[in-house]
Amino acid sequence: xxxxxxNARNERIxxxxxxxxxSETARVLETLRSRADYxxxxxxxLELAESGMTPEAAETRTGLTTIKLLCVQAxxxxxxxxxxxxxxxxxxxxxxCNLASRGLPALACPMLRSVIGAAKLAQxxxxxxxxxxxxxxxxxxxxxxxxxxxVAGEPDSIRVHWLELPHLKDRDDGQRRxxxxxxxxxxxxxxxxxxxxxxxxxxxxxxYRRAWQALVRLSDLRREGRLSSIWFMLMTGVFFCDSxxxxxxxxxxxxxxxxxxxxxxxxxFLAGSPIFFPNFKIPxxxxxxxxxxxxxxxxxxERIFPGSVACGDESEFGLMSAMSQSYHQxxxxxxxxxxxxxxxxxxxxxxxxxxxxxVFHVLKGCHPYDLESFGIETKLKDRGLKFIRLETDYSxxxxxxxxxxxxxxxxxxxxx
Length: 416
Prior knowledge:
4-stranded parallel β-sheet; globular
């Protein structure tokens, strides 16, 4: 009897949560479609967001088994060449957070809580493996978090391949260890007997190079004020939901269209924790406060992958070495110790984008970005940039306070 009552209660909770997630998604999609700068070239990206941003949906669209990722260090080209579809697992639903187990820490990463809640709601997830680079503590403990939340059995029952990430990028021994990790990853991808041919790897590098070029084109349009940051974040946010070829074609079509200029505001750079659909609270608040994001370094936006793999030697070793270097040396995640290039990256973009302020977004519980924000604030202020730190979560309760702070921040930029 008790079990029956519990099951009925769970069904009610799941139904309520599912309705709330649908409502969150529909509300943001309606807002986007009613914007003055909407054009039909955005429909492809809106439809991806509407039809489901899950590994299962991606498998249906691509016809390929997914490799589930949490961070950007696993080479997408290698996964693609092996005949899989790389899918960065994410979720921006506040309602989904509520399904995560109370056994998790109160300040657990909101994004991972949302991912776990969405997986729990689905009650059946893709059996494809997880690839987890050892970036932050939350990622390292993620299999345990899934088990605690009753999404999976014991942590050891989840098929996981760990990429042990050297956190010192500039040391030779770290670089050697990382290329060994990439070769071990290749062995993992081919453990079922499939092969990764050199020609397939070269083709995958070319496919993602074209996607990178499209991403750069969109970044240029945003910097020029022809593409709003909200559309940019939607387009990059659904990158993993379809094949890279289809996404690139749609992005190129949008870039070549006659887009209505976005609303102009005081130019800022957006840094910090990732922002995932439908949790566009911060992008909307920035617009409302009269701030225009012209560039960012979010791993959910302009940094969805480290960059184009540059390779003069297209032998297998040359391609593997180039990928290893790109995904290690090119990444500016705060998990790295020697990360001065993150500051240099922001300052370098300041000249071309013309921003005078930096908005640093920190999700509560996102410890690497939280810790980094204090040091980066001092360094950027010393170089004449205005800086504001926004610590928030997925809820909308703090929106009015954040808006007030952002409006005051805008005023300091204009008075400068």
